[in-house]
Amino acid sequence: MKLTILGCFSATPRKDTNPTAQVLEINNHLFLIDCGEGTQVELRRNKIKFARIKHIFISHLHGDHFFGLVGLISTFRLLTRETELHIHCPKGLKEVIIMQMKLADSWTNYPLIFHELTSDDSELIFEDEKVEVWTIPLDHRVYTNGFLFKEKEGERHLNMPAVIEANIDIAYYNKLKQGHDVLNNDGVLIDHKKVTSAPNPTKSYAFCSDTAYKESIVPIIKDVDVLYHESTFLDKHAHLAPKTKHSTAKEAAQIAKMANVKMLILGHYSTRYDDLNQFKLEAQTIFKAVKLAKDGKQFNFD
Ligand SMILES: [Zn+2]
């Protein structure tokens, strides 16, 4: 699992900072999460192949999280993309994008499929044999979801010498890998745990931006490997957080602690701050394993 931060600041794009966008590589998928202005430039800068992006997840319809989308969709068209593009987003975004394409009379030549979200409960929105994606309902000024990306548990590994020793027919190997006990050639029931080892450990990533402090997300993100939680404000501006429905670094840390995550990444910093290290210091008064997002930074979690 690998995370590339394309942009991690709130509000406006600036000379050296970008609004929210990131790419999560998990089990051969490249998922684009949010698409602030300038995302396609940052994708190129970070040498991410456009064609590999098949799913885009948009948290909410504030401009700093989706103003790059219509440009990216248009560039895909100019690059003569043919593969499907799926957009998972709040209801309303389809109307915005269709209106822009209609006025420009520039329709995509590839299938553009919108999956519009309206539920206030966490729901499964993508699934294949290896990965699941769930929404994380957040508390912001407009309808907003975070996203939980989870690898599914794989098959158990056969311990071949033990399997042969136990005299098990090859026809039962798949059952063993799936965790079933099986009968051997002598009619004896063999405990699968004695002849297999545990599957590879799975990874999980939760993206939570934008949101006010919201404890009810804790059960959804419990024990994830990595939590990206917005921290728009430092403590000295904590009074602005409830009003704007954002969080402070300490509040992000409190959520990370309660959810028992392995690592917290902070981001969505207000552009009023010059010294980002202060976010880390404040968060670490509550939760130790904190990293700072930075535009262009890659996190490897293997
Ligand atoms: Zn917002």
TrEMBL record:
Protein EC: 3.1.26.11
Binding annotation for Zn(2+) 2: 64-65, 210, 268
InterPro entries reported in the protein's UniProt record: RibonucZ/Hydroxyglut_hydro, RNase_Z/BN
Alphabetic keyword roster: Endonuclease, Hydrolase, Metal-binding, Nuclease, tRNA processing, Zinc
Binding site for Zn(2+) 1: 60, 62, 140, 210
Cofactor binding annotation: Binds 2 Zn(2+) ions.
Known cofactor(s): Zn(2+)
One Pfam family cited in the UniProt record for this chain: Anti-Pycsar_Apyc1
Subunit structure: Homodimer.
Described function: Zinc phosphodiesterase, which displays some tRNA 3'-processing endonuclease activity. Probably involved in tRNA maturation, by removing a 3'-trailer from precursor tRNA.
UniProt protein name: Ribonuclease Z
Species annotation: Gelidibacter sediminis
Taxonomic lineage of the native organism: Bacteria, Pseudomonadati, Bacteroidota, Flavobacteriia, Flavobacteriales
